[in-house]
Description:
By secondary structure, the protein is an alpha+beta fold. The protein has helices at 17-23, 28-35, 39-46, 69-75, 82-90, 99-108, 121-128, 157-163; strands at residues 7-13, 53-54, 60-61, 92-96, 114-120, 132-135, 155-156, 184-188, 198-204. The protein has one domain. The chain has 8 helices and 9 strands. The radius of gyration is 17 Å and the shape is globular.
Amino acid sequence: MPVLPANIFHVADTRNWESIREHGLLCTDTIVRRSTPREADNAAVRAYRPAGVSLPNGVFIRDQKPMAPATLAQCLDAGVSPLEWCDLINRCVFFWADRTRMERHLTAQRGQSLIVLTFDTRKLLAAYSKAAFLTPFNVGNSRRRAAARGWRTLVPVDCWLSDGWASEASPGSPPRRSSHKPAELAIKGDAPDALCFLTACNFLNAPRR
């Protein structure tokens, strides 16, 4: 039977720490709408971002280079466009569910000033279970033989606990083995009370003041 990890991890830019302390973990869509009132401006930021963006309120939104529209189009299910996928990603708060994957991500981001927030999985899910989903791979990366993906890729936690990856399998293909660990946990929408379930906070390469 699938078992959830005891802890999950959220990685953020250190420039966003004050906002996180004040508002909790907000999805990119909410952050941009609060900071950029003009719909024409915030729509551009919420679409694919080839470079990071510093918002008027000081929050930094990271780039989306790993999921360029051209590569996304090659791995998305029929009926799902790159713009729709970006919109889905921007409406979720993501956590690493696998420490090894998270450490590889940090290695790739070496030298950047980041915060690693560690959360108690059980307690976080008790608060956000209805909006919580698991993914079998990094859904924000469409490089290097990217796995096929679509709406099925985000599996409700309750479904995963009872049926593993059955609902994630593409039509005609067998599901992933139950031993396949979740890569990410996604909360659709915001997690304003997330810090209530924080167990550790580590700053990496934080600038000196």
